[in-house]
Amino acid sequence: MDSMLLCPGKGLVLPTPNVDRISQRINFLLIALPNNEMSNKSPFAVHKALIGIGGEPKSVKRLSSGDLLIVINSAIQTKSFLLAKTFLNSHLIVIPHKSLNSCRGVISELDLLSTPEAKILDGFFDQGVIQVRRITIRKKNTNIPTKHLILTFNNPKLPSTIKAGYLNCKIRPYIPNPLRCFKCQRFGHSQTSCRGQLTCSRCASAGHSSTDCTLEPKCINCSQSHASDSKLCPKWKIEKQIQEIKTNKNISYSEASKLIVSQISETYAQVTEPIPISTVLKQIQI
């Protein structure tokens, strides 16, 4: 696996022989300055400095953290940014984006059921796989392994097949379940970053967990009569659609969420829009 070290204040330090290999598979970079100095820089100066390093990027976006997310045009441009050390008279920090430069897929092979995950990773490593996780199902308090394997690739483009020895395994995109906080029961964040209050997943009341709760089920997200962890929840189904769009289009959660909201708004407008009388008359004539 390619080794990469981040030296605070000095940018991304890469072993020289690996820069070319890494640049071939990175399309998204995070660019930051120490002490969030990027927020104080002029957009005009920032744009000019970016072009000076590696030419015009495909796109540039400022994140809520103050860092810049840039989309790269070519491997040569990626290499230029990775090797850059200064930016507007400040030390530059350049990091490949953690998730946008990789992707996950699922294979289902009975012939690999008895093979340990570490052995499978060894066999797939030369094909760009950097992580293997077997999907398990829980029955009677026991985790039962399945034939389904989640593969993480070091490339944002998912291959259609992968070779497991003599087997040619078909790969399908991995669509994760919506991220729901086990503390406040809301979607979009985890318990570790939650700022909300403890909420029961069964009754939606604050101040207690669902362990011994006997109250009537109520969902905190949609107010319907089911538990907050139910997959029947309409909010859960929307969040699942967001994950599908996020995965298939390789975009961020917030971008996928905006697309879903836009689709829902258009659908609602079509449902509530009155049908023109001319359309009704044409349908009658037909």
TrEMBL record:
SMART domains assigned to the protein according to its UniProt record, in alphabetical order: ZnF_C2HC (SM00343)
Gene3D superfamilies: Zinc finger, CCHC-type (4.10.60.10)
Stretches of the chain forming a coiled coil according to its record: none
Domain CCHC-type residue range list: 180-196, 199-215
One annotated GO molecular function: nucleic acid binding
Protein name from the UniProt record: CCHC-type domain-containing protein
The species this protein was found in: Trichonephila clavipes (Golden silk orbweaver)
